């Protein structure tokens, strides 16, 4: 814990979690043929997002971060492959973030 961002270290690790809701509207086709019938489908689920990251302070107001995120849902119907395996749909992403912090002008 720091009073301001100016007192943070050169490297910082962080984690995050929460709860969310996702709604998917898609068009399913059961063939690679363009004339195949389109079946509109929808799916929804509650999910738990998880995040771990490492940031490096480039300057007093600029950070470069590497983040790994996961979205753990409670449904197997989000991607349209229902019953394909025994697990629910889980989505993952990695991103590189350039973060510019705001100045604190309150004294």
Listing every helix as H and every strand as E from the N terminus to the C terminus, the arrangement reads EEEEE
DSSP helix count? 0
Mean pLDDT: 85
**Which ranges are low-confidence, i.e. pLDDT below 50, for 5 or more consecutive residues?**
none
Helix proportion = under 10%
User: Between the first and last Cα atoms, what is the distance in angstroms?
Assistant: 19 Å
Helix/sheet category:
mainly beta
What would you call the quaternary organization? Answer: single chain
Radius of gyration: 20 Å
Shape: elongated
How many strand elements? 5
Sheet having the most strands: 5 strands, antiparallel
Question: Beta-strand percentage?
Answer: over 45%
Task: Tell me about this structure.
- The protein is mostly beta strands and 107 residues long.
- It has no helices and five strands.
- Strands 1, 2, 3, 4 and 5 form a five-stranded antiparallel sheet that branches.
- The mean pLDDT is 85.
Short description, anyone?
By secondary structure, this protein is mainly β. It has no helices and 5 strands. Strands 1, 2, 3, 4 and 5 form a 5-stranded antiparallel β-sheet that branches.
How are the SSEs placed, and which strands pair?
Blueprint lengths: L10 E7 L2 E9 L10 E19 L4 E12 L16 E11 L7
Antiparallel strand pairs: 1-3, 2-3, 3-4, 4-5
Spell out the key features of this protein:
107 residues, 5-stranded antiparallel β-sheet, mainly beta, elongated
